[in-house]
Amino acid sequence: MIAELRAAEAAANGWVEPLPGLTDAAMDGWEVPVPEHVRRVLRVTSGLRTLGPSGRVDEEFTVEHEANGDPGGPFYSRCGEPGTFRVLHTNGLAEAYYVDVAADTGEWNGVFSFWDSIDGRFEAPSLEDWFVILAKAARSAAFAVENGCFDSIRDAFFNVLWSDFTEKAGTTGHPEHDWSAWHDPALAPVVDAVTARASRDPVLAASGAHVPDSATVADLRGAVRRTLVPTLDLPGMGIDAAFRRFHGGRILAAVPWDD
């Protein structure tokens, strides 16, 4: 993973850079536990950022995101109960990305996102996998700029993650730079909480027991790539959802934001 980040930095000619690593003392001050395998990564780098004109920070993806220190804020309060997540990124598209932390074991699980809606997404199976995705996005952005498809790494990187990069860069079928699958995520199976509680599947039943009737319960146990998690528009849901995770981050429940 570290090698992927270094390769992205080299390919982007200074427009992308890994963030400095963290001390154990800094991680010890967080409200979530940090397992040793995660610490080994974060001692080397806390994330990645892209730079705009004059070296200004454009996008930053970091476990030290400022929203982690804002318990009353809109991003923090939608990610779950305190001590069950770490915010990684927010942006002008009203998106927030966060990593799940299991309340019972302290293990760091998958990376998720949500936006100004009731739906969510499963982005990656782990923080390490998410960092690799970002590094590959940076390399694809550099490739496209080098081939004259975009004027800047900044524009190309945005298109990789959030727009129609593959079409604009002409990379359909390319073994490394075709991002069409990223923009066509799998769809998670979902049920309402009442149905989950009545399920013969003990994992679904247990998860449904922890959320209100208005909640949607999604099963991500089979997810191996980016997956959209639609939320059922049930009575009492409202216009935005907050999220809770169970079973090692493989069950995602969307609940009314004020519940």
Explain the layout of strands and helices:
Layout: H1 2-11, E1 16-18, H2 24-28, H3 36-42, E2 47-51, E3 57-62, H4 74-79, E4 85-90, E5 96-101, E6 108-114, E7 120-124, H5 127-146, H6 153-162, H7 165-169, E8 186-187, E9 190-192, H8 193-197, H9 202-208, E10 216-219, E11 227-229, E12 241-246, E13 251-256
Helix pairs in contact: 1-5, 5-6
Strand content: 15-25%
| Number of continuous helical runs | 9
Overall, the morphology is globular
Could you report the average pLDDT, rounded to the nearest whole number? 94
Protein name: SMI1/KNR4 family protein
Organism: Nocardiopsis endophytica
Describe the structure.
This is SMI1/KNR4 family protein. The chain has 259 residues and is an alpha+beta fold. 29% of the residues lie in helices and 24% in strands. The chain is built from nine helices and 13 strands. The strands form three sheets. Strands 4-5-6-7-11-8 form a six-stranded mixed beta sheet. Strands 9-10-13-12 form a four-stranded antiparallel beta sheet. A hairpin with a 5-residue loop joins strand 6 and strand 7. Helix 5 crosses helix 6. The longest helix has 20 residues. It is globular and about 55 Å long. The mean pLDDT is 94.
Which terms would index this structure?
259 residues; alpha+beta; 6-stranded mixed sheet; 4-stranded antiparallel sheet; 9 helices; 29% helix; 24% strand; globular
In short:
This protein is of the alpha+beta class and 259 residues long. The protein has helices at 2-11, 24-28, 36-42, 74-79, 127-146, 153-162, 165-169, 193-197, 202-208; strands spanning 16-18, 47-51, 57-62, 85-90, 96-101, 108-114, 120-124, 186-187, 190-192, 216-219, 227-229, 241-246, 251-256. The longest helix is centred in the middle third of the chain and has 20 residues, at 127-146.
